[in-house]
């Protein structure tokens, strides 16, 4: 049996990779409907070795698809995901629109795949924020083994998380700066080329940004444990693909660096790259980008805390952080539930 799939936002940074991953994995895909705005309706996108014509989302009849992969922004999901679900198309939503709704499952397949069963309630499954996904793939085995009391995390996030406009802005600013031309900052409030911005998504009343609070709210929901203390700083860096994170955790019971390395080496979705020598760690460009794996390195015991552990975690934010995670959810959905 095959499933017809609508890809909403098919011309975007995540949508394009959704099509790529759908074609490259053995997903039982029937028809694929690439959808976007009126602006790009009629244009072509690549699906495997075929070119498909983009259709206007506003005119699409969702009863023609059994699965909808949404990645066109929260407002688009707000309007169209319930319509698609009502037409019998199960939505896997990449935006933040439904993540904090108690009745909508928020899923990382390596962490809480059992929640997919709740897709039935509203016909919608939410895909978490990219930074949360890679962090929890690495931390779930540790939490299960010894408990995590507190997480301090700093992120180093690629511009592709913002979308195609941001990829273009980094490329253009870089080229212009190297050619001593004028610089324009339009997508980000300050220059991103050769710079680092401690600001992702909108500021909240408590002084954190929304991206930071997403990591707090989503960790509690996905780990199903409100007691974990989470203190994030989310930072945008001039990298095209691949998020990196410095995690500083305090566990409930002591875990040594050796125990942590051994545990994570046998955990799903993770590869350890942790040699204490030049280059013996993962980076966004050399390992993260274009890979399906969450890489963990720099594992060490925190010299400032008796139950502290430090880890460096790298993954492709567009793949594991978005498109791949959604398609892994879809794979479990079709295998176990549809
Ligand atoms: P379009 O190409 O028609 O603008 P990114 O995250 O890379 O910025 O991509 C956003 C995606 O969301 C694109 O595929 C974009 O399509 C799509 N999108 C944006 N606004 C709408 C809309 N009003 N209706 C449908 N799709 C939209």
Question: What are the defining features of this structure?
Answer:
338 residues; Rossmann fold; 14 strands; Dihydrodipicolinate Reductase, domain 2; alpha/beta; six-stranded parallel β-sheet; binds adenosine-2'-5'-diphosphate; 2 domains; six-stranded mixed β-sheet; 32% helix
Characterization of the model:
- It is built from nine helices and 14 strands.
- The termini are close together.
- The model has no long low-confidence stretch (mean pLDDT 97).
- The chain is globular and about 60 Å long.
- It has a six-stranded parallel beta sheet, with helices on both faces. Strands 10-9-11-14-13-12 form a six-stranded mixed beta sheet. It has a two-stranded antiparallel ribbon with strand order 3-4.
- The chain has helices spanning 13-24, 74-86, 119-122, 130-146, 164-178, 210-223, 257-265, 284-288, 319-337, and strands spanning 3-8, 29-36, 44-47, 50-53, 55-56, 67-70, 90-93, 124-126, 148-156, 229-233, 243-251, 270-272, 294-301, 308-315.
- Strand 7, helix 3 (119-122) and strand 8 form a beta-alpha-beta unit.
- 47% of the residues are buried.
- Helix 1 crosses helix 9 (319-337).
- The protein is 32% helix and 23% strand.
- It folds into two domains: 3-127 and 322-337, Rossmann fold (3-Layer(aba) Sandwich), CATH 3.40.50; 131-317, Dihydrodipicolinate Reductase, domain 2, CATH 3.30.360.10.
- The protein is of the alpha/beta class.
- The longest helix is centred in the C-terminal third of the chain and has 19 residues, at 319-337.
- It binds adenosine-2'-5'-diphosphate (A2P).
- Adenosine-2'-5'-diphosphate binds at residues 9-13, 15, 36-37, 39-40, 57, 72-73, 76, 163-165.
- This is Aspartate-semialdehyde dehydrogenase.
- Substrate binds at residues 157, 236.
- NADP(+) binds at residues 11-14, 39-40, 160-161, 317.
């Amino acid at each position: 049996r095959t499933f017809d799939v609508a890809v909403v936002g098919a011309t975007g940074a995540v949508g394009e990779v959704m099509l790529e991953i759908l074609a490259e994995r053995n997903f039982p895909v029937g028809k694929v409907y690439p959808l976007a705005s009126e602006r790009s309706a009629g244009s072509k996108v690549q699906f495997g070795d075929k070119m498909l014509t983009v259709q206007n989302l506003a005119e699409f009849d969702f009863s023609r698809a059994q699965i909808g992969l949404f990645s066109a922004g929260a407002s688009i999901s707000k309007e169209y995901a319930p319509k698609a679900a009502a037409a019998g198309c199960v939505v896997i939503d990449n935006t933040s629109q439904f993540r904090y709704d108690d009745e909508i499952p928020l899923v990382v397949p390596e962490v809480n795949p059992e929640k997919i069963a709740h897709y039935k309630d509203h016909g919608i499954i939410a895909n978490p924020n990219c930074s949360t996904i890679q962090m929890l793939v690495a931390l779930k085995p540790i939490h299960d083994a010894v408990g995590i009391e507190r997480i301090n995390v700093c992120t180093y996030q690629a511009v592709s998380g913002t979308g195609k406009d941001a990829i273009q802005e980094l490329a253009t600013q870089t080229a212009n700066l190297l050619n001593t031309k004028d610089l324009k900052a339009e997508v980000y409030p300050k220059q991103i080329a050769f710079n680092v911005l401690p600001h992702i998504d909108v500021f909240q009343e408590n002084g954190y940004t929304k991206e930071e609070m997403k990591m707090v709210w989503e960790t509690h929901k996905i780990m199903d444990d409100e007691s974990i203390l989470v203190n994030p700083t989310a930072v945008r860096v001039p990298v095209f693909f691949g998020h990196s994170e410095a995690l500083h955790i305090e566990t409930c019971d002591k875990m040594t660096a050796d125990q942590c390395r051994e545990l994570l080496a046998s955990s799903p979705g993770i590869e350890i790259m942790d040699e204490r020598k030049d280059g013996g760690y993962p980076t966004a460009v050399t390992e993260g980008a274009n890979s399906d794996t969450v890489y963990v390195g720099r594992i060490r015991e925190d010299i400032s805390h008796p139950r502290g552990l430090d880890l460096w975690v790298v993954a492709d934010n567009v793949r594991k952080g978005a498109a791949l995670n959604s398609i892994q959810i879809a794979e479990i959905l079709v295998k176990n539930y549809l």
